[in-house]
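Example record

One chain of 577 residues, shown exactly as stored in the release files.
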Amino acid sequence: MPDDVPERVEPFTKIWRPAETPGATQELIAAGHPPWLAELLARRDVEGVEQAKAFLHPALDQLHEADSLADMGQAVARLLTARKSGERVALVGDYDVDGVSGTALLTAVLSACGLENEPILPHRMHEGYGFQPIHAERAQEKGCSVVVTIDCGTNSEEAATRALELGLDVIVTDHHLPSGGGKGRLPDGVILINPQREDCGYPYPELSGAGVAFKLASAFAEAAGRPIDATRLLRIACLGTIADLVPLRDENRVIAALGLRALERTTSVGLQALIEVAGVRRPYRTDDVGYRLGPRLNAPGRLDSADAALELILSRDAVRARQLAQDLDARNRERQEWERQAATEARDLFLRRATEGADPLPCILVGWSETWHRGVVGIAAGRIAKELNRPVLLLAVDGESATGSGRSIPGIHLHDFLDRYRDDMERFGGHAQAVGLTVPTAELDGFRQQLESAAESWRNRVSTKVYEYEIEFDAADVGSEVLEELQRLEPFGMGNPRPLVRVRGPLRLTVPPRLFGRGHLSARAQSPDRAKIELLAWGWADRADRFARPFEALGFLERDPYRGVVLRIVDVREYRS
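Predicted structure tokens for this chain:
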């Protein structure tokens, strides 16, 4: 790393503050919940005894009716006609975990119901994201008369138009934001199942792509007279729901919670092989999907084709499944190397530019390179956004076009911000916190300057990083009993974050911290009353000096298989009485 680029910078002021106590807290305390748990529930919009019961005990009867999704009836009717007529259906899914798991789910259900189908996954490097005209042409070549998209298609006007020209009927299942509102720019005649539609009255619009596919699969199976046990489908739907970082509230919470339980009992040889290779242990948590299963399923689609991930989920051959799982594991290690390269180079690029110029670090960071793999720039952008506390766009240049991804930070809606520049981009789509885009290479510098200027209004927002802790303990209070209570709030994720805990000081290390892995450290601290607490700090090797003086800590309580209850460090500060 060049000498002029610091190992770690924090271009923001850090503030620790307790989260506010919502008004519903007292009613939950009166119902018998401990005060700190009542506060946690209230902050997750739980009001009253019945809502608390539903939140703490997810159940199938909390799922919403599929037919309340706009166009669901039309979609089911068209698929029933296809089954009766002996037609073939093309299933065009995205290449990430959400799209692949949703495609696998629909493939399995349509096949079980006697409807022939042909899954088609885009090749990231050759075809790019989502439903493309070439997929409509491929569907026709394979003898299909209907195209169903999964986790894509809402803004695929060109592809949908081409499909209609070829005489194909189009059913789009998606959860991405429609451009222009309503049904977006799709041509007349396209059936669009998307809870984000402005004219859709579905009770919960934040489903994942796999969640929408689950709804269609369930409704079709019921109408076809072949209802399928929902938990068998949820074990697949939960993969996309968790990995795609949709809010784990309401229906998504049910899908994630029941799906994880079903995953523990799965008889799928493909999922069993994946779980074994990833080293996942029961009970399964959202982190197991987010950091172990998801990345391995994502890896082939990030580097080239996602076909191997789809084959693994659907596999019935234990030997083949084991081979596929090992291949995905190897691809994931390759993906990690590409990601590290992009993240390191991009971070150095941003920091060097800031140190060389008189201006502060921009409020949005936009970078590009011909050496970055476009399949990993989104993950790299997310790491930098978290470290530097501002949205990041990273693009891989390939000739006349640059394709990449953006990640935001809480409180900044990146999709809405970029949507006003849609005409400057060749392709664009995504969510509040994550976007994908393609920009003409020749326009990149002007595009960057335009975004930096517009984002300057965020200066106060990105210059301060607020850590809101939800619980405050002494070291003596931290133990298995508290952790078990916190685990009642699982599954954790977007919309239901793992509670941030402040452990009051003064804490002192009992021995020097132990370094391990790629820049991680572990340590043991104790309070003045000799209560001990185990610490685990990922990526903190270059910050070990922060533990040299008496300190207090922020982190998440977790159970480590070797050390018991640990505090996973988020931040520490010097203790001052």
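Notes: Confidence is low (pLDDT under 50) at residues 1-6.
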